[in-house]
Amino acid sequence: MPHLTSADRLFLDDFRGLERIGATPAGGVHRLSGTAEDGALREWFRSHAEAQGFDVRVDGIGNMFACRELVPGAPYVLVGSHLDSQPLAGRFDGAYGVLAALYAASRALDRLAADGCAPARNLAVVNWFNEEGARFAPSLMGSSVYAGLYSIEDMLEVRDLDGVSVREALDAIGWRGSDAPPDAACYAEIHIEQGRILEREGLDVGVVEASWYTQKLDITVLGEQSHTGATAMADRRDALVAAAEAVLAVHDVTLDFPEEMLVSSVGQHVVEPNSPIVVPRRVHMIADVRSGDPEIVRAARAALLDQFERIGDRRRVDFIVEDFDVREVCRFPEAGIALAEEAMRAEGLASRRLSTMAGHDAVALNSVVPTVLLFTPSVDGVSHCERELTSDEDMLTGVRALTGVVRALLER
Ligand code: HGY
Ligand code: MN
Ligand code: MN
Ligand code: MN
């Protein structure tokens, strides 16, 4: 590890402090949106942002904006990510990007002042509400409301599996605000890659040029409840057996396409009544399907619907399938990519362009303002898992990279 500056040590100390919120015994975090852990993270972020001279605003869907007004009336450079996590997940996904944004924002302002340059824009560091969509679907919720892709009224009424609404959850932790969010001129984000490319090629930073097409299938399988002992096998309408075939179909449909051009999983699965001696009457499950080519997803989706129909006929159950959380391919603007690559060169960092298969708040923001998305290496490419890891050195390099980008965006 090269020589650590005092600012580097401060960053690492703060990241260690952040890690402890919602920490799990196995070294990960469990920080679902709208929970007490989310509330603690927000208090942590607010106190650290205010300590660095930012004024924190909270909008009606719980997005947090730590603002520095530099040029009255000017639009804002937004830089940030998300503090919520998947269940039993990693310490870095989102949280690293929020802390890196706070440090890069302060350092970019210091650099501008040291260079005698005046900023042309204002600056805000953002914690977006519910990027993960784990407790409340869809994902990228707060950033999509900000981008006008979803209505705040609809999102506040979304309910989790226990029937708790977003509104009730935010009110319970006291984080449903009423501040007007700042107007954005542009957005920048740094995020762990959650893949293996940067690590395999020994690179410092990734500059993201496009995101994959992603969508989810909301699948309900309806059979009939009956006694697992007394009911003849020929008389059963077992929703779970049919759902099990459907789960395999979701996985195996990827084999019909060029290797790694399509990825899919069923990650969430609820069985009713979920009793050992009752034939299940209903299974509700969510499939996630992604590809760099939307036509491949559309073809896979058609094949699956056809298979579900055949499974339903054979098993005498009904399938109800709805599309949601659809994200078209997003291409980041060439001007932002070039600006980021220039900043990497100026910092002496090795970077390359790549696509993201994971969704990010930057995808929502890019639908309304020019956006730059940077990646930092992930060890083994593992994420949404407690052993997710990015080295201290790579985290600090990412802060340097983001600082260069924010400084350039402030001057435009
Ligand atoms: O959808 C995603 O890939 C992100 O982790 N929410
Ligand atoms: Mn601190
Ligand atoms: Mn993330
Ligand atoms: Mn994630």
Automatic annotation (TrEMBL):
Positions bound to Zn(2+) 1: 82, 93, 191
UniProt KW Transmembrane helix keyword: no
One MF annotation (Gene Ontology) recorded for this entry: hydrolase activity, acting on carbon-nitrogen (but not peptide) bonds, in linear amidines
Required cofactor(s): Zn(2+)
Source organism superkingdom: Bacteria
CDD domains: M20_bAS (cd03884)
Note on how the cofactor is bound: Binds 2 Zn(2+) ions per subunit.
SUPFAM superfamilies: Bacterial exopeptidase dimerisation domain (SSF55031), Zn-dependent exopeptidases (SSF53187)
InterPro entries noted in UniProt: Amidase_Cbmase, Bact_exopeptidase_dim_dom, Peptidase_M20
Binding site for Zn(2+) 2: 93, 132, 384
Keywords, ordered alphabetically: Hydrolase, Metal-binding, Zinc
This protein's name: M20 family metallo-hydrolase
Organism, scientific name: Leucobacter chromiisoli
